[in-house]
């Protein structure tokens, strides 16, 4: 299992590493993270925020809710992303879920 913490400030590298994707796919996926970040801002503040500075990517990707929203965005992109990207996100979501379950059992 990979360590999902990341000292890198490059969100594309973080996406590629965490999901095991090529850089090109991570670059495309980064565009959808902007929509997820705005969705979260609207939920928090009631409106989109142009000056939003989200947490580092590795922190966002450690949230099942963030991953759920990202999956939703990817699923809405007709044919833009292959099943490999969806599977990578779902797999990461499962890893996080298992970590939380094993943490709850302790």
A few lines on this structure:
Helices cover 68% and strands 0% of the residues.
**Structural classification:** mainly alpha
* Proportion of helical residues: 55-70%
Would you count the extended β strands for me? 0
Spans with pLDDT under 50 lasting ≥5 residues?
A: none
Largest sheet, in brief, is: none
The number of distinct helices, counting runs of at least 4 residues, comes to 5
Distance between the termini: 19 Å
Mean pLDDT: 88
The helix-strand sequence is HHHHH
Rg estimate, integer Å: 14 Å
What is the beta-strand fraction? under 5%
Categorize the overall geometry. Answer: globular
Explain what the structure shows:
The model has no long low-confidence stretch (mean pLDDT 88). It contains 5 helices and no strands. The two termini are 19 Å apart. With 106 residues, the chain is mainly alpha-helical. The protein has helices at 11-19, 23-45, 57-60, 64-76, 83-105.
